[in-house]
Amino acid sequence: MEILHATAIADVASARERLLLTAHRLFYRHGIRATGIDRIISEAGVAKVTFYRHFPGKSDLISAYLESRHERWIAWFSDALRRHGDDPEALIAALGEWFGQPDFRGCAFINGVGEMGAELPDIVAIARRHKQAMLTIIMRLLKPGKGRKQLAESIALAVDGAIVRAQYEANPRDALPPLRRALKALVRS
């Protein structure tokens, strides 16, 4: 995944894009609840009135952030899988790339649901769509046949577990060997 640097954000001409990119960086790094609107406005270099012209409230910005994150992550995920062979083993290499990023903080959707899902049902709906898209991509890695969807669901669950584990490991890539073993067992079954 591409890292969002403050200098890259400053180069974006559109105030809305600067707000969205700044929110993306801060929400992902520090959490949704811990990141205030005033900080986003300040770091994006826009006026408060400009923020409210584009986003009537923080919940609108959160939804826009997650929708944007979804598009970016799914595009990256599809490309990474293709680069690594478009088979189940490609999941390990793709996730290894992501877990190795210095800004890795886990799944924005799992984190968002855990943080704000009870208060903002839109987060849950966006997360469901994201996980369904991830499932569809994983299903494409598998050979057609009976049980393909169920196998993809099991693999997706194992992937989510590895993502969560990578968040608390000293080295996030330490979550990959158990995922590889689970993936091999699932594909064999």
Describe this structure in words.
It is built from 10 helices and no strands. It has helices at residues 6-10, 15-30, 37-44, 48-54, 58-83, 90-99, 108-116, 121-140, 148-168, 176-188. α5 (58-83) runs parallel beside α8. It has a single domain (6-188), classed as Orthogonal Bundle (Tetracycline Repressor, domain 2). It is mainly alpha-helical and 189 residues long. The longest helix has 26 residues, at 58-83. The chain is elongated and about 55 Å long.
Q: N- to C-terminal separation?
A: 32 Å
SSE ordering: HHHHHHHHHH
Number of strands: 0
What is the CATH domain class?
Answer: Mainly Alpha
**Tell me, what's the shape?**
elongated
Could you give me the name of the CATH homologous superfamily? Tetracycline Repressor, domain 2
The total count of helices amounts to 10
Low-confidence stretches: 3-7
CATH domain topology: Tetracycline Repressor, domain 2
Strand content: under 5%
Helix content: over 70%
Largest sheet: none
Class from helix and strand fractions: mainly alpha
- Count of spatially separate domains: 1
Please tell me the CATH architecture by its name: Orthogonal Bundle
Average pLDDT confidence is 93
- Rg over alpha carbons: 18 Å
